[in-house]
Amino acid sequence: MNYSNKRIVVVGLGRSGVATARFLTHRGARVTVTDRKGADALADSVAALAGLNLTLKLGGHDPTDFETADLVVLSPGVPHIQPVLEPAWANGTPVIGEMELAAANITEPVIAVTGTNGKTTTTELLGQMLKNSGKTVFVGGNIGTPLTDYADGLHGKADVVVAETSSFQLDTIVDFRPSTAVMLNITDDHLDRYASFEAYAESKWRIFENQHPTDAAIFSALDATVTAMLAKHPPKARRQMFSDQAVVNGAQILKDKILLFAEGRPVGSYALDQTALIGPHNRENIAAACLAAREQGATDSGIQQTIDTFKGLAHRLEPVGTVRGIRFVNDSKATNVDAVKRALECFDRPVVLIMGGLNKKGDFSRLKSLVHHRVKTLVAMGQAKDEIITALAGDPGHGILEADSMEQAVQKAFDAAVDGDTVLLSPACASFDMFTSYAQRGERFRQIVERMR
After folding, report:
1. Domains in the chain and their CATH numbers?
2. In this structure, how many other beta carbons lie within 10 angstroms of the beta carbon of residue 171?
3. Which residues of 371-383 are buried (b: 16+ CB within 10 A; e: fewer)?
4. pLDDT for 309-362, tens place per residue?
5. How confident is the model at residue 224 (pLDDT cuts 50, 70, 90)?
6. How many CB atoms lie within 10 A of CB 309?
7. Could you write out the three-class secondary structure of the chain?
8. Are 441 and 435 in contact (CB under 8 A)?
9. Can you give the pTM of this predicted structure?
10. Distance (Å, whole) CA 285 – CA 227
């Protein structure tokens, strides 16, 4: 599309909104950026746009902007169904997301990774496998650096673009077509934004929507919702699955290795004995990354090197210290129930679990069995504290404790633990009741532990 002199409204002035506004003004568009937040709350974003020829309308949306727009571009955090967009819909004005805008201006092959849990780890693994194979790679999307920054030429030219992709981004695609699409899992999340779990699953599945038979679709055979969606909406692309059972095309996950097959023939084997990533869910992430990396020309040595040296990411089952024989693990990124389930499955010693925050309509009772068998004491905090206590009452053998702050939660967990136990922060909730992000929450946990040493 020729953006010159087009009236384009960018909705949302977060990181993606800044990248979108910059990209479009560089191409001569008449850009209006609008956000419900005021200038004070968006000071950093406003500063990032200094010197650009655009209009800022902050503190609310002006309906007339949507009536006269040639194009509306939504940031991922902006719901795609809201009344303010009605004038654009009524006029037949295209309403797309930042990722759709970027992808339309990227000619390199794109690997898109989605799933409720494991997206970032898999995306980073995949990017490193390709880099260790001699490829020039851009890694971005929902992981932090907007794809629009790459499309704008801010990161040079890559051989391959690897994009973490959220359901929010997939809500607003039109023609987005990844050469390789990866679906890790689909479990309850963001039910505060979607009308139902089914609607959330349908959104996730859109990652395969525009693929051709020459593209690759990689998915889990271990996730019930993924297999149900596969039967309901079979992708047109070539399919590869990862499973703990034998596969014809894809990856078989064993405890100590990943075996790859094509048409039933073995085509690759990667050892897991040196990996720092623990738990069955991380073996799934590694398997998915192996398959996607090979699709874009990664070498066996590059893949194995990455498996052996990848240290994991902050706030994802991250050890942050040991005090009096008690290990502290930061899993602040576990913002939904399934992520906590996956974390607890990694421990065979007693766990003191810290949960709580802002509930995204997750069903905490789904943790009852695991909490009963693996958690000795539960510390509940945050806005969802009472819901957690009600859902899990009676299951931790040593009971449930309440805390009003992270400091109090860590101290109570420490007091309840003994030598050999693990204190695990795995909240099953968003952070926004007490913190600005899951990262800030995890850092606070880390700082408290460091002071205890």
Report:
1. 7-93 (3.40.50.720), 100-309 (3.40.1190.10), 318-452 (3.90.190.20)
2. 23
3. beebbbbbbbbbe
4. 999 899 999 999 999 999 999 999 999 999 999 999 999 899 999 999 999 889
5. very high
6. 12
7. CCCCCCEEEEECCCHHHHHHHHHHHHCCCEEEEEECCCCCCCHHHHHHCCCCCEEEEECCCCHHHHHCCCEEEECCCCCCCCHHHHHHHHCCCCEEEHHHHHHCCCCCCEEEEECCCCHHHHHHHHHHHHHCCCCCEEEEECCCCCHHHHHCCCCCCCCEEEEECCHHHHCCCCCCCCCEEEECCCCCCCCCCCCCHHHHHHHHHHHHCCCCCCCEEEEECCCHHHHHHHHHCCCCCEEEEEECCCCCCEEEECCCEEEEEECCEEEEEEECCCCCCCCHHHHHHHHHHHHHHHHCCCCHHHHHHHHHHCCCCCCCCEEEEEECCEEEEECCCCCCHHHHHHHHCCCCCCEEEEEECECCCCCHHHHHHHHHHHEEEEEEECCCHHHHHHHHCCCCCCCEEECCCHHHHHHHHHHHCCCCCEEEECCCCECCCCCCCHHHHHHHHHHHHHHHC
8. yes
9. 0.91
10. 17
